[in-house]
Every structure is written in C-alpha cells, then in structure tokens.
Amino acid sequence: MSDAFRELLKKVGSGSHTSKDLTRQEAADAMRMMLLAEATPAQIGAFLISHRIKRPTGEELAGMLDAYDELGSRLQPLTSTDSQVIVLGIPYDGRSRTAPVSPITALILTTVGQPVVMHGGGIMPTKYGIPLIDIWQGLGVNFRLPLSQTQQVFETTKLGFVYLPLHFPLTNKLVEYRDQLGKRPPLATMELMWSPYAGVAQIISGFVHPPTETMFQDAHALRGQKYFTTVKGLEGSCDLPRDRTAIIGIFSNSNLERLHLHPRDYGFAGKEVPLESLTSLIAQMQEVLQGKPSELMQAAIWNGGFYLWRCGVCKDIESGFTEAESLLTSGKVAQKLAEITQVVNDIQLAHQV
Predict the structure, then answer these.
(1) Strand-pair category, 201-206 with 255-261
(2) Cα-Cα-Cα-Cα dihedral sign, residues 307, 308, 312, 316
(3) What is the side-by-side strand order in the sheet with 159-163?
(4) 158 closest CA partner among 291, 289, 343, 331
(5) 345: which strand partners?
(6) Considering the entire predicted model, what is its pTM?
(7) Buried b (16+ CB within 10 A) or exposed e, 203-233
(8) Residue 122: is its pLDDT beyond 70?
C-alpha cells in the first residue's frame, strides 16, 4: 500500500462535507502513482470513483495533465510548416449512436496542409463505442505503429495519430478500472484536453455538460494554454451537430468568443446519421470520399467547412463550406487518404527490410 496515495485518497474521498480538492501538485502525484501502479488496485478504484463523485476541478485536471506530459510519449514539433498544429480531443470510449466524421475532417484539413493530431486507444469502457483506430484501419490506414514511424508519417503527411496502447502503455493499466467501475472517471475529462504533441498547438475539445467547459478553461489557464476551442459536439466529440445549434467557445489569450451556429442558417439542418456498424460506417465514408451526395456528406461539409475557417484556411465560414465540398467532390481528399495509406505502407515496409 502507498501511504502517500492513501493521504490523497482521504482528501477526495471523505464525503460531501469534509472532502477537499487536491492541489495541482497533489493531483499530478496521484496520477503518477496510478499510472506507475505504485498505488494498490483498491486505492486506485476508490480514488477514481471518489474523485468522480466529488467532481474534479480545473486545478486537479491541470495536475493530471502534468503527469501525462511527464510520463507519456508525444509527437515532436514539426519544422516543415508554418501552420499551428490542431489537436482533436475526442472521447476515448468512442461513438455508439451517431456516425463520426472527425476522420474525414482530419483528411480535409491535411489535404490543404493543415497539420492534425488525433489520439486514442482500442475499445474502451464505459461506452465501448467504435474507436478512431478501427475507423482508420477500415479506411486502409494502419496507425498501430511505433512512435518513431508515426513521427515519420506525421512529418510527411501532416496527419499524426498517437495510439496509446503502443505509445503510452501505462494508461492501459487503468482501462480495467473503467470497466469495473462502470462510470467514466475524471480521466475521461482530462483526456479531452491532453495534447500528445510537444509543440505549440490549438487544442479542440468536445464536451457534453457545460461545467466541463469551465474546467477546460481553468486547467488551460493554469498550464499556459492560450488558444483552444470547445465544442458541444455529438456524444462529447468535436463533431458539430446538425439537429441542434452548435455551441462553440473560441478562447484566445483569456478572451472568449461564443459562437452559436444554427445549421438551418447555412442549409445544413438535418437528422444525425445513425451509427449502425463499423462496416456500414466505412462504406458511407467511402461514398463521401467519392463525392457522392448523402446525409454523411452534408455532415462532412458542415464540419469540414467550420474547421477550415477555424484554422484560418478560409476567410469565413461560408467559403469554408464551399471549399470543403470542392475538396470532397474533386477527389482531392480521397487522394490525400491514398497518399497517407501509401506513406504508412512504405514506412512499415522499409522497417521490415
């Protein structure tokens, strides 16, 4: 048993009247001891559920992120671009109800030279939804690569994917706890904010509940992250909804610009595309990449156009939608996917020789 961890557990697990918030350093220590398994299984399980009940603070999340930065592997800064890297923070437990379009968004952005970093693992409790790694595999891209090879892919194509089971295996030790607890621990909130990129980046985080956005703001302020975007997206992702108003926060140097994007104002209102299976999702995505009209195509243009504008590629949102549609229907995004696939295959082959 870790006596040091026991003291931290006592602080967060003493009940609604006597529990106390951890300092940033204490939260970092707790996260480090859990990742390194210095705390016992009983202590870790008790801490995760107690912390969920207490609710994390921005300062605690900042400390947990400090530990992730200390122990986790990250992609190194690009030297071949003037564009600020975009990191998409998406729930690790995937999607289970609505079809995701974030991989297509990433392809649209990298097609115009905008670097994008994504991250995640395999099938994850508590939702057990379709993880990003499986979607990319279905599209023909194997991101289950050593970090050095992932870095090569990133530098060549501007798309990076940090796959935690290979690049940050310490996190795998905590997956079982998520399964047994049956509830998302505060780790799930912290992961939405983590940047597995060692350089300056624009972090885009999805969320569901409004208090989460305040936690993002507090934690980023403590860590000196001046530029980030929050999206009240589908199932907590960065995907903008089409069946309701998209609520977006653009944070720059402690200033907040609040956007309420109404899909009907731009001709994109509609029902969300249901997620039936990975096979059907890949087939739908392939049709989008072929430029065929569909509801998922509308979602891809809606999201791609917004992010083209948000990244500064297009001067306004309307021109972003026009550009996104053109990139998809012209086959340029499909060509980018083929390029990424070829680069990954060539790098893997070169390391097998």
Answers:
(1) unpaired
(2) negative
(3) 159-163, 116-120, 85-89, 201-206, 227-231, 246-252, 255-261
(4) 343
(5) none
(6) 0.97
(7) bbbbbeeeebbebbbbbbebbebeebbbbbb
(8) yes
Kindly tell me if the per-residue pLDDT of 353 is higher than 80.
no
Please check whether residue 23 is in contact with residue 182, taking contact to mean a CB–CB distance below 8 angstroms: no
**Which tokens belong to 34?**
């859990």
| Domains parsed from the chain with CATH numbers | 3-55 (no CATH), 85-335 (3.40.1030.10)
Calculate mean pLDDT across residues 165-181. Answer: 95
Cβ neighbourhood burial of 170 (10 Å; 0-12, 13-18, 19+): middle
Q: Which amino acid appears at position 113 of this protein?
A: G
- The residue with greater pLDDT, 177 or 79, is 177
SS (H, E, C) 207-232: CCCHHHHHHHHHHHHHHCCCEEEEEC
Structure confidence at residue 338 (pLDDT) = 98
Burial 302-340 (b: 16+ CB within 10 A, else e): bbbbbbbbbbebbeebeebbebbbebbbeeebbebbeeb
Q: Which residue has the tokens 């972003």?
A: 320
Where does residue 69 rank: exposed (0-12), middle (13-18), buried (19+ CB within 10 A)? middle
